[in-house]
């Protein structure tokens, strides 16, 4: 969740939504994202809305404390119940992200999930995920999460090479994420993801292959592999600007992506979104699919974004300001926007084109349709799906996904 917030109109003090937001809601799945903004240290590449203890000291007082954060976030879940009124939908997915959610006690994460269950109910087959830092969990912690209703976990591995982790300012040791997969399996987690990053300055093709080998050897059923994006204002951006580490170019990113596709496919993983692979449909991250398909979700926590029925809003960033708003009985919303039909059409193209099945050609304007025909001729879109009325990326198209999306939107 990037730290910068957009502009928008004010959010009412009670958080009330326009009546149009819940029109047809029963036909849309509902998810919850629960943001935990705390980290033990700040990674050099991270631009997310997260805070270390040092960064919070003196800026939020007791309100920003990790010790009472679960209760504060539960207050927002209760606010969500009031705002959504008699919405009968049970929650289909819950995703706890950060930051490092597992810096909180396992019982705190279970209580947060319990509040969603109490206020809304969970679907019988609900997907319940938490992100985890490999160094902040152990067998007992994982067992508590599993017993409390979590059934999916995502470990931040990034790399198996120590010198790559050092550039990223990651604190875990190589081998620990793989051990966590085994511990999660022993605790009863059916679905386990490992997050990887490629294109770190100083990483070689062999380093990347070693990371993929290590991840696959651990036995997850889901792997996410993201190209490193150097965000302005981060420590890594400053180091690159000073010439301390080299910038990785787009050709290297493309080569690393092809290596990932080759190795993951050979190991029985299928891509279903440009940066995500799973061994089965059940192993896919359903919560992320809610985002990509424009469903409804409530994001609770500092800086968290929400979307319900074409209304998008976002919370104040700082944990102290967030807690103060809820303590005063106010919505922590900082701003919101009501999406027009055109906004929603464009967003569908931007997001759904990244999915395996692509986007309906019926969403494209004449200029976009002309661009799609050129993309088809250039081998960027799949012929069979195109003939069936969908624009879906080929492997080469995935390498150029951002450019293809721009052309189809234009």
From TrEMBL:
Protein origin, superkingdom: Bacteria
SMART domains, per the entry: Elp3
Cellular localization per UniProt: Cytoplasm
Annotated Radical SAM core domain residues: 24-270
PROSITE patterns in the cross-refs: RADICAL_SAM
Keywords: 4Fe-4S, Chaperone, Cytoplasm, Heme, Iron, Iron-sulfur, Metal-binding, S-adenosyl-L-methionine
Record's function text: Probably acts as a heme chaperone, transferring heme to an unknown acceptor. Binds one molecule of heme per monomer, possibly covalently. Binds 1 [4Fe-4S] cluster. The cluster is coordinated with 3 cysteines and an exchangeable S-adenosyl-L-methionine.
Family note: Belongs to the anaerobic coproporphyrinogen-III oxidase family. HemW subfamily.
Protein name: Heme chaperone HemW
Organism: Streptomyces marokkonensis
């Amino acid at each position: 969740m990037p730290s910068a917030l957009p502009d928008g109109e004010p959010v009412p003090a009670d958080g009330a939504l326009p009546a149009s937001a819940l029109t047809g809601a029963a036909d849309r799945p509902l998810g919850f994202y629960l943001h935990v903004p705390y980290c033990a240290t700040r990674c050099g590449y991270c631009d997310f809305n997260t805070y270390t203890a040092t960064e919070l000291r003196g800026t939020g007082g007791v309100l920003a404390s990790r010790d009472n954060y679960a209760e504060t976030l539960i207050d927002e879940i209760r606010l969500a119940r009031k705002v959504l009124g008699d919405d009968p939908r049970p929650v289909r997915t819950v995703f706890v992200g950060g930051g490092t959610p597992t810096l909180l006690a396992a019982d705190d994460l279970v209580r947060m999930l319990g509040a969603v269950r109490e206020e809304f109910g969970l679907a019988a087959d609900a997907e319940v995920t938490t992100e985890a830092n490999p160094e902040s969990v152990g067998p007992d912690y994982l067992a508590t999460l599993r017993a409390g209703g979590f059934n999916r976990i995502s470990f931040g591995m990034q790399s198996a090479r120590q010198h790559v982790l050092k550039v990223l300012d990651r604190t875990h040791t190589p081998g620990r994420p793989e051990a966590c997969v085994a511990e999660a399996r022993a605790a009863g987690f059916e679905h386990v993801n490992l997050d990887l990053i490629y294109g770190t300055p100083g990483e070689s093709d062999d380093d990347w292959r070693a990371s993929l080998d290590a991840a696959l050897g651990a036995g997850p059923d889901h792997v996410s592999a993201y190209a490193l994006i150097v965000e302005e204002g981060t420590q890594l951006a400053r180091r690159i600007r000073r010439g301390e580490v080299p910038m990785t170019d787009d050709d290297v990113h493309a080569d690393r992506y092809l290596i990932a596709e080759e190795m993951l496919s050979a190991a029985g993983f299928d891509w279903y979104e440009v940066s995500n692979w799973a061994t089965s449909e059940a192993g896919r991250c359903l919560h992320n699919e809610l985002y990509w398909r424009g469903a409804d979700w409530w994001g609770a926590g500092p800086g968290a974004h929400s979307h319900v029925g074409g209304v998008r809003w976002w919370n104040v960033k700082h944990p102290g300001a967030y807690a103060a708003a809820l303590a005063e009985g106010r919505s922590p919303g900082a701003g919101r926007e009501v999406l027009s039909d055109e906004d929603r059409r464009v967003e569908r193209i931007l997001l759904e084109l990244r999915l395996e099945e692509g986007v309906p050609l019926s969403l494209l304007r004449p200029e976009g349709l002309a661009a799609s025909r050129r993309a088809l001729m250039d081998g960027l879109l799949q012929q069979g799906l195109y003939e069936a009325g969908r624009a879906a990326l080929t492997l080469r198209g995935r390498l150029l996904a951002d450019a293809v999306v721009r052309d189809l939107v234009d």
